[in-house]
Write a structure and sequence with these properties.
The protein has seven helices and twelve strands. It is α+β, with helices and mostly antiparallel strands. Among the domains are: 10-76, no CATH class; 81-146, no CATH class; 225-279, SH3 type barrels, CATH 2.30.30.140. The strands form three sheets. A five-stranded antiparallel β-sheet has the order 2-1-4-3-5. Mean pLDDT is 83; it is low at 274-280.
Length: 280
């Protein structure tokens, strides 16, 4: 039996998990110096999550010692606090989006809050309505609005490049990504490496797309008849077989069945004058 005089002193502290929720009591050890406004990691039924201290700690009353309180584990780290605030900002923007979608569907509801659950592919929308409403069409619309890319942004992770996901670290909005971007950059469309953690085409396909478009515009099309300089003032007729966009060269196939990689400044084809003007 433990000695009451040597037993660890425990305290209650009020912690709020959501801005719209009331603060609940959590157990806190004596060595945890906590103040109102601090972010802490607390135990929940689903694991651990970040909460905000809303009531200062106070000694645990004797009549509450038998109650099953959850516990404050530790202060949240700077990174955990940053992620929590970032997610909350995205949730606030989602509230506005949901309210607009509800109006589009002529639903008399007020969206109170939106919760993106960390580590789970789920978005919870809290709303209030005076009457029973059929929101099935709204749910389908929101499922399209908060799709796989939004879920991955909330969950965060490490991309194939070994760095934190772009959408979680610095991207402020999602730009449309198309198969054309992959084709322009000569990427095989059957390669799974084109897909990001969300299962959609990677956002980074956009980063160099404009450069590839500019460089590709300087090259002839595949199967275009051409003349390749052979040195000594001579030329050989051939046909463009493939392009080397970044190297600014082409693979030329000749009538004898041979092929050669030739820089574009040594190749002539229909419309060549247009290209030469860009290279001067």
């Amino acid at each position: 039996m433990s000695d009451p005089e040597t037993a660890a002193v425990e305290y209650l502290v009020g912690v709020r998990l959501r801005e719209v929720a009331k603060a609940e009591d959590y157990l806190a050890a004596e060595d945890l110096e906590l103040h109102v406004g601090d972010l802490v990691m607390v135990s929940t039924e689903g694991g651990q999550t970040v909460g905000e201290v809303r009531r200062p700690r106070r000694p645990l009353p004797d009549f509450k010692r038998d109650r099953p309180f959850q516990r404050v584990q530790r202060p949240a780290t700077e990174a955990e606090g940053h992620e929590w605030r970032e997610r909350r900002e995205r949730e606030k923007r989602a509230i506005v989006t949901c309210q607009h979608k509800a109006r589009d569907h002529r639903l008399a509801i007020k969206v109170v809050d939106v919760e993106f659950t960390p580590g789970a592919r789920r978005t919870t929308v809290y709303f209030n309505a005076e009457e029973r409403v059929d929101f099935r069409e709204l749910v389908r619309d929101l499922a399209r609005e908060f799709g796989a890319r939004d879920v991955t942004k909330v969950m965060d992770g490490i991309g194939p490049c070994g760095r934190q996901l772009c959408c979680s670290s610095y991207l402020r909005k999602f730009e449309p990504i198309s198969v054309k971007m992959a084709k322009t950059q000569d990427m095989p469309l059957t390669d799974n490496r084109l897909l990001g953690n969300c299962g959609r085409l990677k956002c980074c396909l956009l980063y160099e797309f404009s450069l590839y478009e500019e460089l590709r515009a300087r090259l002839p099309r595949v199967n275009t008849p051409c003349q390749a300089s052979c040195g000594g003032g001579g030329c050989m007729n051939g046909k463009i077989r493939s392009l080397r966009v970044l190297k600014q060269s082409v693979i030329v196939g000749f009538p004898d069945g041979t092929e050669a990689e030739v820089p574009i400044d040594q190749v002539t084809w229909e419309g060549r004058a247009h290209i030469q003007a860009q290279l001067k």
